[in-house]
Amino acid sequence: MAQSALKNFTDESLLGQPITLNNCDREPIHIPGLIQPYGFLLCLDEQSRRVVQASANTLTLLGMAAETLIGAGLGTLLEPEQLLEVERVWAKLGTDARLLGIHLGRVTGQPAYKLILHRYDGLLWVEGEPLSETSVSALDLPALNVSLGRLLTAESVLECCQVTAEQVRTITGFDRVAIYRFAPDDSGEVIAEDVREDLPPWLGMHYPATDIPKQARAMYLKNWLRFIPNAHYAPVPLVPTVAPGASRPPDMTYSVLRSVSPIHLEYLHNLGSEATMTISLIQEGRLWGMVTCHHQSPRLVSYELRDLCQFLGKTVSALLKTKELQDEQAYRLRIREAQVGLFDLVSTQANFMDGLHRFTPSLLDVLDCGGAAIVFDGEVITLGHTPKPRQIEEIVEWLRANNPHDVFVTDSYAQLNPDGKAIRTTASGILAVALAREAGDYILWFRPEQLQTVTWAGRHEKNQTTADGQIFLSPRQSFEAWKQTVEETSAPWLPLEVEAAKEIRLHISDIRLKVFNELQAKALSLTRLNAELERSNDELDSFAYVASHDLKEPLRGIHNYSLFLLEDYADKLDDEGVSKLRTLVRLSQRMEALIESLLQLSRVGRVELVVEAVNLNDALTDILDLLHPRFEQTRTTVTVAGPLPTVRGSRTSIQEVFNNLLTNSLRYNNHAEKRVTIGVASPEIRGPKGTGNPADFVVIYVQDNGIGIDPKHHENIFKIFKRLHAQDKYGGGTGAGLAIARKMAEKNGGELWVDSTLGHGATFYFSIPISL
């Protein structure tokens, strides 16, 4: 967010004024003119490299009054060689901080400080932070590597966040590490935490959007990490607060020592937190959530460990979209499986109503809800927690009078119909589809008011929330404020849930008429197709047997007898006769290889895929290990450009695609130094059939520096037994490998294609659906 946008949320006239709950949402928190006292701050003019402002605690920490430092350079604190080291940093410095560990050579006692440097608002910022006073264990890199692996392989957002909370607490030693996720209305919920055993959990804690003012959210987007080692600190002012010629204090957005709002400190006191650290979780430029750490006593965590935690925060931020897609795909798959079972029951029961509620899965199993109801032919059937039948009939009457559409969805029925207040504990949210609106036939799903499913997980005792008539924020106050925003409201219905309800309606609406007949016709057609496929598969199996047994056996005989003739009669034959026998041996070997390739191709179409989560990094590693001797023999270097994702598909067939493409890269390359690169293609890459949209597919590329392929042959190379070169060139081969690889890619729901020009290497792409 631009600096001007941050200023739009604040009121600079509040500088130096008392901050209360009534004006804290306009507090100019980026220009407080104050710092936390555990370190010192020097602001230097960019041009002159002279101090224009200094924190008032330099006398205590450095033995030099702030006033004596004004106008001086860093040479007052540093030896010449140290000053040169800092000067080298200035040249490339921006808002991202640089760390230097230095003994202040010209300060009495030469104290050791970590200097944190950055450039912003026309100033060079030098912040001095003492060495950590805590005894956090040394960084365990192997353990961190395992944790990063767990982050990458986590199958859900919650699992990814839980791993993050545990790792951050291990690194920092805080009593509690919690992860908040923001809702679309900017309210928040604790979705993961790692906490000291004797402390109460916060999991499930909610708070309103107003707890984090807009200007604070704007800063969280710019500065990923905020740290308060002692929440009872007395702020230290800058000297002078406003530099000569300036209209305001300097913008401390990226300052490590920036003093925070007194309202926030009061909130920390009410939480019982004496030290805190917060890390932003940002997704596509939006504040997705926060990692927040709390300790019941002051705690100074080293800058290096905080920086490592920030790295974890950025890593999680980069993974969030993928994890959310995994969550959505898992829920979509669960809905689809329940739908398939439900449709089967509906189609096989004499009375389709029985298929909707008497068996498993039922309507209640298709969507996440508290209850469901069927209103058909004047009968009301309920499943789970629902309003009373008469109340459901009143909902249907209201729908017939007020909703002209076949689908109705709301997360707050009480806001649309005052009578809904009476049923909010079971039906604040309603998703309904009409089977026959005029007749009052409906299927309805219900969700309870959010407050019925949320437990306050913070401290239950009543914090003191007033002082001299002034209300202060506290966990209890926050929860009460949040409750007011979600009363009579359920969790929202997701678009995929609405689509699932529509599909159910299409399958059962007027099932005795047109839809029923169409489904029956399709079922008959599918039955015929399955019978034909079974017959075809039987014939294919017979062919496979003949090819593997009846054809191979005589070929082996021809091959063996040809060898015997060479061994026993070569000395009795002339050169031409020996040459013909050798040709016969070679041709029999080639024919056997062709039959084997044909068999392999036929198996691809008939073998059922074993669909599973496939970590492409692991799958590729197995193939690279298998081909390693050939890489060494051919002087081939294989590079994997960045980590590969996890997909759903057949591990065996995906590995076969990798194997064929890598083998091709080795074979069709006449360079002394052969190079192959494997990675994830850019998002705009699409296959000939249109696959490749990042929302649905992962596209992998295998690129080599080999002989290349003329564009006119880009399709020919995927035809069975099609070779572009003579049989004795580039290591022989049957010409079946790419045909097999393409068929395997298509079997997985993707495609395989090539981009190449003659003499300039080739790049093969294959797409894999995120969910199969």
Q: Your description of this structure?
A:
The protein is an alpha+beta fold and 772 residues long. Helices cover 41% and strands 20% of the residues. It has a 7-stranded antiparallel β-sheet with strand order 1-11-3-2-6-5-4. Helix 5 (141-153) runs antiparallel to helix 6 (157-172). It is flat, with a radius of gyration of 35 Å.
Observed structural traits:
single chain, 772 residues, alpha+beta, six-stranded antiparallel β-sheet, 21 helices, 27 strands, 20% strand, flat
Low-confidence stretches: 1-5, 20-24, 455-476
**Overall mean pLDDT score?**
82
Radius of gyration: 35 Å
Largest sheet: 7 strands, antiparallel
Strand tally is: 27
What structural class do you assign from the helix and strand content?
A: alpha+beta
Strand content: 15-25%
Keywords: Chromophore, Kinase, Photoreceptor protein, Receptor, Sensory transduction, Transferase
InterPro entries: BphY/WalK/GraS-like (IPR050351), GAF (IPR003018), GAF-like_dom_sf (IPR029016), HATPase_C_sf (IPR036890), HATPase_dom (IPR003594), His_kinase_dom (IPR005467), HisK_dim/P_dom (IPR003661), HisK_dim/P_sf (IPR036097)
Family: In the N-terminal section; belongs to the phytochrome family.
EC number: 2.7.13.3
Blueprint of the fold:
Elements lengths: L2 H6 L25 E2 L4 E6 L5 E5 L2 H5 L3 H4 L10 H11 L7 E6 L8 E9 L2 E7 L11 H13 L3 H16 L3 E7 L5 E8 L10 E2 L6 H9 L2 E4 L7 E4 L22 H10 L3 E9 L2 E10 L7 H46 L3 H6 L5 H4 L4 E6 L2 E6 L4 H14 L4 E4 L2 H4 L7 H4 L1 E8 L4 E7 L18 E2 L2 E2 L3 H12 L8 H14 L5 H56 L5 H32 L4 E5 H19 L1 E6 L4 E5 H17 L6 E7 L16 E8 L32 H11 L4 E5 L5 E8 L3
Parallel strand pairs: 22-24
Antiparallel strand pairs: 1-11, 2-3, 2-6, 3-11, 4-5, 5-6, 7-8, 7-13, 8-9, 10-12, 12-13, 14-15, 14-18, 16-17, 17-18, 19-20, 21-23, 24-25, 25-27, 26-27
Helix pairs in contact: 5-6, 6-9, 9-16, 17-18, 18-21, 19-20, 20-21
